[in-house]
Design goal:
The structure holds two protein chains of two kinds. Chain A is built from four helices and 18 strands. In chain A, β16 and β17 form a beta hairpin. Chain A is about 15% helix and about 45% strand. Chain B is globular and about 90 Å long. Chain B is an alpha/beta fold. Chain B has four domains: about 150 residues, P-loop containing nucleotide triphosphate hydrolases (Rossmann fold), CATH 3.40.50.300; about 60 residues, Orthogonal Bundle (Helicase, Ruva Protein, domain 3); about 100 residues; about 100 residues, no CATH class. The chains are: A alpha+beta, B alpha/beta. Chains A and B meet through loops of A and α5, β3 and β4 of B.
Chain lengths: ~250, ~475
């Protein structure tokens, strides 16, 4: 059983974060809240998301799993205004999720979850930690988008840097330690990432969020941030691009 | 619990080989596949992809999955049920092949430590529908840039290489052949033992024979009779229909050119799902490359020419009974001439040039036809006559006399493509543009009148009434 009511923006945030990586996802629901872990179809990125029941206006649930077409849900939620309440009701008999915005109800067929994998978040040792506001980084990413399809993230003891090198142009964005919320790094680390993924993930981060970014050398990046105030948290993982000799 | 699971699930999935050593037969192909995988472990190899080619149901996909398991690689599959247009291929194969990966259980695979990601493209010869538009090109591009191993699985090697010829140089071709019945019996025995039911060797032999070397078919047959008691089993097995195996064109050609067995050559030719008038192109195109000795070649071509005579009679008299003689001439005749003196390899044979040319010139032929149609209508003749006695003269006249060109364009409603053919210049050249724009600017009044006349009838047909009707 699952029945909940929430503000549209809470749900929109969540769906945007998930639909950035996958079209279909398995949501695990229990008494305490909703959680989800998924790997994107190309196996390049992963999302781990938890949203406590406190983020909902009302929340009633027993343990269950819902396979949801998030691309479809995302489209429907665009109809809702920011503060508008949204009702979610799981119709177990007909295997549907009924989503109500205002006077409109969309009855969405659920997807079979048996084939869906349940990834574990890998244990990665990432020596550098950079904390910053999402707004600080988004300008650099936007500037990079037309330049190349990959982006280098570098952290040293003194600064954090984004470099995007194309065939003809280069974009560089450097944030010194005092421009960041926190910088915790001893030795210089640098990794290269697929820009499209990185920029899509950053675009899904709600405005004004504080990001914790964990970096290593030619190693994945881990990005953590909170959603719905402190009532939910998200971890994104992105695999590095392979730098080959040729 | 286990019983229920295996009843519901298909045995072909449950008993899919998990390791390369469990694949039935095909030891040569498995060896090549391993060598290719090893070359990846030593850094980026020259051949970044591998094409696994062979008939359905003999373990190509299983081999790819088992390879990933043996080497502890991550695996990403693109099946025929996924949308495989250029954008989607670029996302999964393009981006995915240039980054490290997280496996579906969440483990991090760093390519630099030898933990690669195998991208498996199933039914890669089958992605050329409208929905998969641009897919072939995207595959070639992905193969060029990939940092991760890519496997393309095809039933029809020629279909893939014809559409995406670039893959030939970028990927290594590994040919899978049909396993023999001993290989299949071994697989069936293993399954029967695991499922815990008794079945005699004779029965297994029959199933294997009957499957026509399609392991998947054999396992499905075994599953379908597993629950019967011995007597019923006996009855069912005796009545099992023969599965008609469709050998590929390649196999048939191999039988014709190098088996020294005219009867086998004939049988495998007629079991192909192709008409003799196309098959003769295959044989004709490949014959000179395979049969090297001039005298053998002469005899073979002589037989082929007799087959062609029959085909000519078929098309003239519309008597399709003669097809069988054409078949006999081109299969048995060529087989006798070639004997067993010639070896053929997977890359010896090629797709008939004639068919390639036909598909390349399809658009051009269509535009000639459309132009001739307009000429024929205008001059009250047939298309062949328009081609022979009007087209060449009109071309000469129109090139010299631009006014005439303009006049005729209007009269015959010629388009840019027609004019290009007539004048022998590019369709986007200035001359054609000026003619067309002159003709258009002359005729606006007539068009307007036509439009006005059409407008009311259109409204009626749509059933939508105008608000102004109610004023």
């Amino acid at each position: 059983m699952f029945q909940a009511r929430t503000k549209a923006d809470t749900l929109k945030e969540l769906v945007t974060i998930v639909s950035t990586l996958v079209d279909e996802a398995k949501f695990t629901i229990d008494k305490e809240g909703i959680s989800l872990r998924a790997v994107d179809p190309a196996h390049v990125a992963m999302v781990d998301l938890k949203l406590s029941k406190d983020a909902f206006d009302s929340y009633e649930a027993e343990d269950t799993e819902l396979g949801i077409d998030v691309a479809k849900l995302d489209q429907f939620l665009r109809l809702a205004k920011a503060g508008e309440p949204i009702d979610l009701i799981h119709d177990e008999e007909k295997r549907r999720l009924n989503v109500t915005v205002g006077n409109t109800t969309k009855k969405m067929s659920l997807i079979d979850t048996t084939g869906m994998s349940e990834p574990k978040v890998p244990n990665l040792s990432l020596p550098a930690k950079v904390s910053l506001k999402i707004e600080e980084i988004s300008q650099g990413i936007k500037a990079s988008e037309s330049v190349s399809d990959h982006i280098a993230l570098t952290a040293t003891a003194d600064f954090f840097e984004i470099i995007c090198e194309g065939d003809t142009d280069q974009v560089q964005m450097k944030l010194s330690k005092d421009q960041l919320i926190a910088l915790d790094c001893e030795d210089k680390v640098k990794s290269l990432f697929p820009l499209e993924y990185f920029s899509n993930m950053m675009r899904a981060v709600p405005p004004q969020s504080k990001l914790d970014m964990f970096l290593g050398n030619d190693y994945p990046v881990k990005i953590e941030f909170n959603i719905s105030g402190e009532k939910g948290n998200v971890t994104y993982l992105l695999a590095p691009r392979i730098e080959s000799g040729d | 619990m286990k019983e229920i699971a295996s009843e519901q699930q298909s045995w072909t999935e449950i008993y899919r080989p998990r390791k390369l050593s469990e694949i039935a037969g095909n030891s040569q192909a498995i060896k090549q596949l391993k060598q290719w995988a090893d070359s990846w472990m030593k850094g980026n190899p020259r051949k970044r992809g591998a094409i696994l080619s062979g008939p359905p149901g003999i373990g190509k996909t299983s081999a790819a999955l088992a390879l990933a398991a043996d080497y502890e690689w991550d695996i990403v599959e693109l099946n025929a049920s996924d949308q495989r247009n250029a954008a989607n291929i670029d996302k999964i194969v393009g981006h995915g092949s240039r980054a490290d990966s997280f496996s579906s259980d969440g483990a991090y695979h760093a390519a630099s430590t030898g933990k690669l990601k195998l991208i498996v493209f199933d039914e890669a010869d089958n992605l050329f529908g409208r929905q998969d538009y641009g897919g072939a090109k995207a595959i070639v591009q992905a193969l060029r840039k990939t940092e991760q191993p890519i496997v393309l699985i095809v039933n029809d090697y020629y279909e893939l290489t014809r559409r995406a010829s670039g893959v030939k140089t970028l990927a290594q071709t590994i040919k899978f052949s049909r396993p023999n019945s001993q290989n299949i019996i071994a697989v069936l025995e293993r399954i029967a033992e695991n499922e815990g039911f008794e079945i005699s060797h004779d029965f297994l032999y029959k199933i294997a024979q009957n499957s026509g070397t399609d392991i998947r078919a054999a396992v499905n047959d075994l599953q379908s009779i597993a629950k019967l008691d011995p007597e019923q089993m006996q009855e069912v097995i005796e009545n099992l229909g023969w599965r008609d195996v469709q050998p590929e064109t390649f196999d048939a050609l191999a039988d014709i050119f190098s088996s020294n067995d005219p009867i086998a050559a004939r049988l495998s030719l007629i079991s192909l799902d192709e008409t003799p008038d196309r098959l003769i192109l295959w044989i004709d195109d490949n014959l000179p490359a395979v049969i090297r000795d001039p005298e053998d070649r002469l005899r073979a071509i002589d037989y082929l020419s007799k087959a062609d005579i029959y085909l000519g009679r078929v098309s003239r008299k519309q008597y399709y009974g003669l097809w069988s003689y054409a078949n006999d001439m081109m299969s048995m005749g060529v087989s006798i001439s070639a004997g067993d003196r010639y070896k053929i390899y997977s890359d010896t044979l090629r797709f008939p040039m004639y068919l390639i040319r036909l598909s390349q010139t399809k658009a051009k032929r269509a535009s000639i036809k459309s132009l001739l149609g307009k000429l024929a209508l205008y001059s009250h003749t047939s298309r062949p006559i328009a081609r022979e006695s009007i087209l060449p003269y009109l071309r000469g006249l129109m090139i010299r006399d631009i006014e005439l060109a303009r006049e005729l364009t209007k009269e015959m409603d010629l388009q840019a493509g027609d004019l290009a053919l007539l004048l022998g210049i590019d369709s986007d050249s200035e001359k054609i543009e000026s003619i067309l724009s002159d003709v258009e600017s002359e005729a606006p009044e007539r068009e307007e009148i036509e439009e006005q006349q059409e407008t009311p009838s259109q409204d009626e047909s749509q059933g939508q009434r105008s608000l102004f009707e109610f004023r």
